[in-house]
Input
Amino acid sequence: MTQSSAAITARGIHKSFGDQVALDDAELEVAEGTIFALLGPNGAGKTTLVKILSTLLKADAGTAAVAGFDVATHPAKVRESISLTGQFAAVDEILSGRENLILMARLRRVKDAGQIADDLLARFQLTDAAKRRVATYSGGMRRRLDIAMSLIGNPPVIFLDEPTTGLDPEGRLEVWHSVKELAGKGTTVLLTTQYLEEAEHLADRIAILHQGRIIANGTLAELKQLLPPAKVEYVEKQPTLEDVFLAIVRADGNHSDPATTAATSAATRREDRR
Output
């Protein structure tokens, strides 16, 4: 990857809080228009690195750049180029979905706030709920609205810090679809997660962060090559619990047969992972 194609770079990032080392010589590069997953358990340093890249924290050592701007010397330019969505949806529950979007557009001094709100509601499949108070939204709907709000002003880079924390399986799938659409339209996404399946399903590249150090970095295929070849066995494919859960919920909503829905869901999910 060349410097010109990198939307995000970090070199030798170190950060400590007292005697606790949060990041130890962390390095990464994220290509423009891709989804990069930063994978690691709680306490690995994922959020700390995102805060440094988004100018909310200063590194003790190292350099970083986002959208071509150094985070230490040009923080205002970095902030103009990014959006950050944290672990919990930052939406106003008293307002409707449309009112939340219009408010954010006006705060960012974007013209045609109403039209932008309507376009984003349609893009994130929230048009039918546009006039409802956000307090009535499901977790997945709130998260999709939160991501939609973060796109006002068309930032080229978006940070999603564990965006599916606390969501049910169906809500997670809704968010996954939205994240894929972002990259499909050219937005660079840096996603932090502790869910292995989430990184596997979404990311073009994956970095594994452990105890403040990035210990592996590559595509899913490259990371798989780090292990010995798998023994090939032919077994009957059984649906996962997630397949069963989603099939039953969707069948109930459509008044259809759960067994048929489960088979269709499992086949679709297998196709999506290819």
User: Anything to note?
Assistant: The beta strands are 6-17, 20-31, 35-39, 61-66, 69-70, 82-85, 157-161, 188-193, 205-210, 213-218. The chain has two domains: 3-230, 237-274.
